[in-house]
Amino acid sequence: MSAALLETQQLCAFYGNTQVLFGLDLSIAQGGITTLLGANGAGKTTTLRAICGMVRTSGQIRLSGASIAGKRVEDIVRLGIAHVPQGRGTFTRETTEENLEIGAMTRHDRRAIAEDIERVYAYFPRLKERRKQQAGTLSGGEQQMLAVGRAMMLRPRLMLLDEPSFGLAPMVVEELFEIFRTLNTREKVSMMLVEQNAALALDLADQVYLIETGRLVTSGPASMMRDDESIRRSYLGY
Amino acid sequence: MMELFLHQVLAGIATGAIYACMALAIVMIYQAIDHLNFAQGEMAMFSTFVAWQLLEWNLPYWAAFAGTIALSFAAGVLIEHVVLRPILRAPALSHVVAFIALLAIFNSAAGFIWGHGIRSFPSPFGTQPIFGQTLVSPHNAGIMGMTLLMLVLLYLFFRHTRIGLSMRAAAANPESAQLAGIRVGWMLALGWGMAAAVGSVAGMLIAPIVFLEPNMMLGILLYGFAGAVVGGLTSPVGAVVGGVLVGVIENLVGTYMPLLGRELKLTIALVIIIAVLTIRPSGLFGRHIVTRV
């Protein structure tokens, strides 16, 4: 296995006085796709939010060895972590293309930005058709594509994907996950995927962490989890 | 008969331009922070006093004008950092209290520094009627021109610059904007600075008409609010159109229903606000904002 891109040690997270994560040790491999599985309320979304500094945390978070714990969201993002949030975070009144430009707001290389917009359109031709349309009028699937496209505009090292399949038609989900695979192999973007749909996630990912009420249950290669009958039954529900 | 009507409409547009100016500042800040700033009028009044002071120190008019805009911008940024930043995530009511406090502070501070006497403030456009007509004074024409110019500049800024797009993103969806690496806090401060600057221009344009004193903005702010609400709080163009409409309505009511017009001048603004909020809450040009639950 290659070196870790992101590592957490004893990661805890809090909403006000309520503790949600209890000492997670995670390691996301450079170039890999790691998935975080668990039931509703297990703390999957919170883990992603903790990595980006969107909730109060304690413990260590290291990106390529350098500590990012306690930094501001904007600064963490600028280090190359793109978070595709639950609910997609669409800027509904702005056009599709403006949404992509917003994703590149931390960059100043105009020509490269224009090229990257075309690159996103190559992955998602439907977005190109709707480039001048208000993003709020896009379908759920298109808005999810836009959210991924916006994340691509950052040229991230690590993409955090929070329930990208939520509320989408199976066909669209398939298309989307195929693109995740391509992004991972061709653009060398490492990924951390949070999913309700465990079967889907296990298909895409190579490394799995299973959490329950904010604590780590088990971890290992995706193939192992797929074959482990008892884990599948008790935690993954299929 | 017709001539009187036209005359009054034109005069209404002229006063309306003043309200439009103020409404524009109100909408600016509403766009940036999602709250109505009640202290907007007093901030504009204070800026105008600063301009007056600069003129007293014998600065040429346009130098004082530019200097006041720059100082107001800086003050707006400072106010955001010192007063609003600590209560960023506090409930709306905390903001209302802070705005009322700012209103009182600026009003008293102006009275304390410059006194409560009424002062005249010069117009850069002169007061001689153009073409020998008395319909629209050059100053009123100047106000209209400046308001339109500000509108165009703001439009270009928000539609066609990257920083304008960042500000829109930060206001519309702060969390998502942060995830795009946008420094949302700075965008808010910039929004305050710009609103204060637009307000200062409004104040300097209005002062030659209403005279300069600490309470000069009280009525105008109310009409500005009415204009902003009529046009829709989400639309700068709506603010200008709304402001002008309110001016015209005020003038026509004053002419044809003198009893109402004289005594109940401010009531008209309130009636307009309530009527619009009842019939079309998002205003003539405003977007209807739907919140998904």
Question: Secondary structure elements and their pairing?
Answer:
The complex is a heterodimer of chains A (238) and B (293).
Chain A: E1 4-15, E2 18-29, E3 33-37, H1 44-51, E4 56-63, E5 66-67, H2 73-78, E6 81-84, H3 96-103, H4 110-123, H5 125-129, H6 140-152, E7 158-162, H7 170-186, E8 190-194, H8 198-204, E9 207-212, E10 215-221, H9 222-227, H10 229-236
Parallel strand pairs in A: 3-8, 3-9, 6-7, 7-8
Antiparallel strand pairs in A: 1-2, 1-4, 4-5, 9-10
Helix pairs in contact in A: 3-6
Chain B: H1 2-33, H2 40-56, H3 61-84, H4 92-114, H5 138-160, H6 162-172, H7 174-179, H8 184-210, H9 218-231, H10 236-256, H11 258-263, H12 265-279
Structure description:
The complex is a heterodimer of chains A (238) and B (293). Chain A has 238 residues and is an alpha/beta fold. Chain A has two domains: 157 residues, P-loop containing nucleotide triphosphate hydrolases (Rossmann fold, 3-Layer(aba) Sandwich); 65 residues, no CATH class. Chain A is 39% helix and 28% strand. Chain A has ten helices and ten strands. A six-stranded mixed sheet of chain A has the order 6-7-8-3-9-10, sandwiched between helices. In chain A, strands 2-1-4-5 form a four-stranded antiparallel sheet, covered by helices on one side. In chain A, helix 7 links the parallel strand 7 and strand 8. The longest helix of chain A has 17 residues. Chain A is globular. The radius of gyration of chain B is 19 Å and the shape is globular. Chain B is built from twelve helices and no strands. Chain B starts with a helix and ends in a 14-residue tail after the last helix. Chain B has a single domain, classed as ABC transporter involved in vitamin B12 uptake, BtuC (Orthogonal Bundle). With 293 residues, chain B is mainly alpha-helical.
Query: Which parts of chain B are unreliable, with pLDDT below 50 for 5 consecutive residues or more?
Result: none
Question: CATH class of the largest domain in chain A, please?
Answer: Alpha Beta
CATH topology of chain B: ABC transporter involved in vitamin B12 uptake, BtuC
What is the strand tally of chain A?
Answer: 10
Can you tell me the number of structural domains of chain B? 1
The level 1 CATH classification of chain B is Mainly Alpha
Largest sheet of chain B: none
